[in-house]
Specification:
- By secondary structure, the chain is of the alpha+beta class.
- It has a three-stranded antiparallel sheet with strand order 1-2-3, with no helix packed on it.
- The chain has helices spanning 5-35, 41-48, 55-64; strands spanning 103-112, 115-124, 130-136.
- The N and C termini lie far apart (73 Å).
- It has two domains: 7-64; 99-148, no CATH class.
C-alpha cells in the first residue's frame, strides 16, 4: 500500500483538526461542569451542539474523560395506593369481537406554571379509539372520570 505524501499530509491534517476540535469541546465541557456539576452529558450536548460529532460520540468523549455523571433515580411517587381497593380482572378470558364491549380509562398529570393538572381519557378497548377526555385541576371522580 503506497500512500502519496499529499494524501498522508491531508490525513495528518484532518487528524490534527479532529484532535483540536475534541480539545476545544473538552474545555467547554470543563467550564460547564464547573458551573453545573450535575448537568447530564445529553443536556451539555444540546447546549454546545458540536457540528463535528453526534450525541453518542459526545457522550463517549465525556465518559472517556470522566465528565459523565451518575444517573440519579427519581424517587418521587405520584400515587399512594395504600388505601386503594383492588378488584379482580374480569376481562382476562373475554374475547373481544367488536367495539363497545370494554372501556378503559387512564389519568395522567402534567405541570404548567407550577400547578398540576389531570387529563383523563376513556378508550374503547377493541378499537383503541378515544371516546372521551376531560382536564381538571382536581383529582376527583366528579372532575375527571365522570366528565370524560
Amino acid at each position: 500500500m503506497n500512500i502519496s505524501k499529499q494524501a498522508m499530509h491531508s490525513l495528518i491534517e484532518r487528524k490534527m483538526q479532529h484532535n483540536e476540535e475534541r480539545s476545544y469541546i473538552l474545555k467547554i465541557v470543563a467550564l460547564i461542569r464547573a458551573d453545573h456539576p450535575t448537568l447530564s452529558c445529553r443536556f451539555m450536548y444540546y447546549k454546545i451542539k458540536p457540528a463535528s460529532m453526534g450525541n453518542d460520540a459526545f457522550e463517549q468523549l465525556c465518559d472517556q474523560y470522566g465528565y459523565k455523571t451518575a444517573l440519579k433515580r427519581n424517587r418521587h411517587r405520584t400515587t399512594d395506593s395504600s388505601s386503594v381497593v383492588s378488584f379482580n380482572n374480569l376481562t382476562i378470558s373475554l374475547i373481544l369481537t367488536s367495539i363497545n364491549q370494554i372501556y378503559s380509562s387512564d389519568i395522567t398529570c402534567y405541570e404548567i406554571n407550577e400547578r398540576f393538572y389531570y387529563v383523563t381519557f376513556i378508550m374503547d378497548y377493541f378499537s383503541r379509539y378515544i371516546l372521551g377526555h376531560a382536564v381538571s385541576d382536581r383529582l376527583t371522580t366528579e372532575k375527571t372520570t365522570l366528565p370524560a
